[in-house]
Amino acid sequence: MENKKKVILDCDPGHDDAFGIMLAVQHLDVLGITTIGGNCTLENVTRNAIKVLEVLGMADRIGVYPGHSCPMVAPLVTAPQFHGETGLDGPVLPEPTHAAQNKHAVDFIVDTVMSTDDVTLIATGPLTNIASAINREPRIVERVKELCIMGGSVTYGNWTPAAEFNIFVDPEAASRVFNSGMHVKMTGINLTRQCELTAKHVAKFREIGTKAANLAADLTDFFIGACEEESELTGATMHDACAVAWVIDPSLITAVPMHIDIELHGALTRGMTVCDYRHLRGTVPAVDLERTPTMGYRGEEPNAEAALELDFPGFVDLLNSTLENYD
User: Fold this and answer.
1) Do the beta carbons of residue 62 and residue 21 sit within 8 Å?
2) Beta strand residue intervals within the chain, DSSP E
């Protein structure tokens, strides 16, 4: 593990979170997995994380630490229409034989970051645990190497016209994080919509045939159906896996610095990630958003990096080789 990046993965499995786990535990030094109520209840997402680790043969090495069951202010919103009643419908997995850790996720994050250098946080659910950790121990802001999230959007929302699901669930937490001074890398749905797995990818997973690949195939089959029914898509969008892939191989994603803040009070825009990309205004009217600045910053200095483009063939190569390398 000496050459691998040290990470804590904060997640709410969730089909795409499961793909993030599969990528992370092979390519990164996962110090622990923390869970948060989001795609499903805290109890279910914690059980799901352990189930995935057991399939991968990693449950003896990586502990799962349950965190907050609900957002800071509002009641919990879940997404059963995409992930089913268990949060991980589709695959038939046995009940886990490993138990969750007794330590709370926030305590684990704080203690680990304060005692370990160069920890990267990856958050693929609502940001409640991360915000609570910052509130508990503000010094982690300077200790964390970076925070890579799946959440938000440079453009439109998916849960509302303006807001993406993870940010919408707990915008107060997201506001605390984006305004904390921590280096944030935002993998929003404007990027993740470029990462759509289809039946041909499922066929490749079946061909690979490892336990992890078969799990990936079952997960994708269910998720394709859910995404088609709810969004009229033709495939399954692997939102959360993109954030993990960005940490594994930064060359897979093209990102641009922006100032990003969270709308908390708008009647129609609560949870919106308000991205200032005026410095990227296209010189040709047909191009809305350049990939390099065309002028100076007009507002506040950037506090985040926003992902804009994904090397999807490169992502698929990474995913397939990962699945091949499991038993």
Assistant:
1) no
2) 6-11, 29-35, 64-66, 119-123, 146-150, 184-187, 196-197, 236-237, 253-262, 273-276, 304-310
In degrees, rounded to 5, the angle at the alpha carbon of residue 120 between the alpha carbons of residues 304 and 106 is: 100
Place of tokens 């969730």: 14
Distance, in Å, from the CA atom of 18 to the CA atom of 235, rounded to the nearest integer, reads 17
Bridge-based pairing of strands 196-197 and 236-237 is: antiparallel
Cα 195 to Cα 86: distance, rounded to the nearest angstrom: 24
Residues 325/25, Cβ–Cβ less than 8 Å: no
Using CA atoms, how far residue 233 sits from 112, 220, 224, 291, in Å, is 40, 13, 8, 27
Q: How far apart are CA 299 and CA 152, in angstroms?
A: 20
Q: How far apart are CA 114 and CA 116, in angstroms?
A: 6
Close Cβ partners of 75 (under 8 Å, ≥ 6 residues apart): none
Catalytic choice (239, 259, 265, 279): 239
Reading the block at residue 72, the tokens are 């800071």
Pairwise CA distance, residues 112 & 91, whole Å: 33
pLDDT (tens digit per residue) in 124-156 = 999 999 999 999 999 999 999 999 999 999 999
pLDDT of residue 287: 67
pLDDT in tens, 186-204: 999 999 999 999 999 999 9
Report how far apart, in Å, the C-alpha atoms of 163 and of each of 188, 279, 283, 298 are: 10, 22, 28, 24
pLDDT value for 81: 83
Question: What's the CA gap between 238 and 102, in Å, rounded?
Answer: 30
List CB contacts of 207: < 8 A, sequence separation 6 or more: none
Phi/psi of residue 115, each to 5°?
Answer: -110, -5
**Catalytic residue at 239?**
yes
pTM above 0.85, yes or no: yes
